[in-house]
From TrEMBL:
tRNA nucleotidyltransferase/poly(A) polymerase RNA and SrmB- binding domain sequence ranges: 166-228
Gene3D superfamilies: Beta Polymerase, domain 2, cca-adding enzyme, domain 2
A Pfam entry, by short name: PolyA_pol
GO molecular function, one term: nucleotidyltransferase activity
Nucleotidyltransferase keyword on record: yes
Record-given protein name: Polynucleotide adenylyltransferase
């Protein structure tokens, strides 16, 4: 984000007379030299009534966060939080004009996320975030870190983002992550929230670091127990081989991560995480493709592979898996693509016109498709 746009936010007439700071990720990424796309702001000394009077729109009835009426950026009242239940939503929030900026920053997860920028450009850093950036360390701000189990996943995700820059998790933070894993608090997280964090991590530069960090602190066995055994190393390595099209990178990486699991394990993990249907299906189809490529690519095997992909009704699913074939077995990709095209060209209407009826049509279709695949594989071989 340009300096003009940044300073322009502070010069906004709606903010006149308010004590406003940019906080969190925007400050962190600017210091790291990363592009800043989104801003989060903290307002000190204000009340909800003051924000509403200026046209800011409350996000929720009991949560002190407001959206700017023009930019939709988030402006949160300075607040503190106290643990009052299980999971990452079990907190009582206290927001009032007497909460200081330092108190607001203290409730955050990592020191690199607990910095603020003043309108003057000065960095307010009461917990050593800048020093930890220079030392390439992910360190918790306070022992309150252990009150929010989601922070275990977030810390692992930040490692996936910054590992290639030499970041590591501080030993004392690793110890707290292990403590949370052992406490049973992770089990109170919503499956959808676990998947959101994991999906983000799968899109980071070093996704394996996320799962390695979860394994190191015992969190992997809570939410990904199927991966905690021998399948872990194979799955982590497989994430390095993903297509560039057919699905998002994070979804391909998940499909490859679980490629070493059997069908029962893969389905159990998908159910536990409440995966979106498209992601679970991609993982299932990718496992089919991997098994097909590992065996003999006979016409019969190819026909069964295409049928199990529901290729006759959903040809885009075959196209997606052919993208995986190009990565895993590039020498076979062109031949299998040709075989698919020839099989897909077999016309049910032509068989009906030829006099086939009822169940005979299906049998004749399979036979004609098998012949088409046989010819294509022979031509390609």
């Amino acid at each position: 984000m340009s300096a003009t746009r940044e300073q322009g936010s502070w010069r906004d007439p709606l903010l006149k007379g308010l004590e406003v700071y940019r906080v969190g990720g925007a400050v962190r990424d600017a210091l790291l030299g990363w592009p800043v796309y989104d801003n989060d702001w903290v307002v000190v000394g204000a009340t909800p009534e003051m924000m509403r009077a200026r046209g800011f729109k409350p996000v929720g009835r009991d949560f002190p966060v407001f959206l700017h009426p023009d930019t939709a950026e988030e402006y949160a009242l300075a607040r503190t939080e106290r643990k009052a239940g299980h999971g990452y939503v079990g907190f009582e929030v206290h927001a009032s004009p007497d909460v200081t900026l330092e108190e607001d920053l203290q409730r955050r997860d990592l020191t690199i996320n607990a910095m603020a920028e003043a309108p003057t450009g000065d960095i307010i850093d009461p917990y050593g975030g800048r020093q930890d950036i220079e030392a390439r360390v992910l360190r918790h701000v306070s022992d309150a870190f252990s009150e929010d189990p989601l922070r275990v996943l977030r810390t692992a995700r930040f490692l996936a983002r910054y590992a290639e820059r030499g970041f590591r998790i501080a030993e004392e933070t690793q110890a707290l992550m292990a403590q949370v894993s052992e406490s049973g608090e992770l089990e109170h997280l919503a499956a959808e929230r676990v998947w959101v964090e994991s999906e983000k991590a799968l899109g980071e530069p070093v996704p394996k670091a996320y799962f390695q960090a979860l394994k190191a602190c015992g969190a992997l066995e809570v939410w990904f127990p199927e991966l905690a055994g021998d399948a872990f190393d194979e799955g982590v390595a497989a994430m390095a081989q993903v297509p560039e099209h057919g699905a998002t990178q994070s979804h391909w990486r998940y499909a490859r991560l679980v490629s070493a699991l059997d069908d029962h394990q893969r389905d159990a993990l998908a159910a536990r995480l409440k995966l979106p249907k498209a992601v679970a299906q991609l993982a299932t189809h990718s496992a089919l493709t991997q098994r097909f490529l590992a065996g003999a690519q006979t016409p019969d095997a190819a026909l069964k592979w295409l049928a199990r992909l529901d290729g006759w009704r959903r040809p885009e699913q075959v196209a997606t898996q052919l993208a995986l074939v190009e990565v895993l077995s590039p020498s076979q990709a062109a031949t299998l693509r040709f075989a698919w095209q020839q099989a897909a060209a077999v016309s049910p209407k032509a068989l009906v016109d030829a006099g086939y009826q009822g169940a005979e049509i299906g049998k004749a279709l399979d036979q004609e498709r098998l012949v088409a695949i046989q010819r294509a594989l022979s031509a390609g071989g």
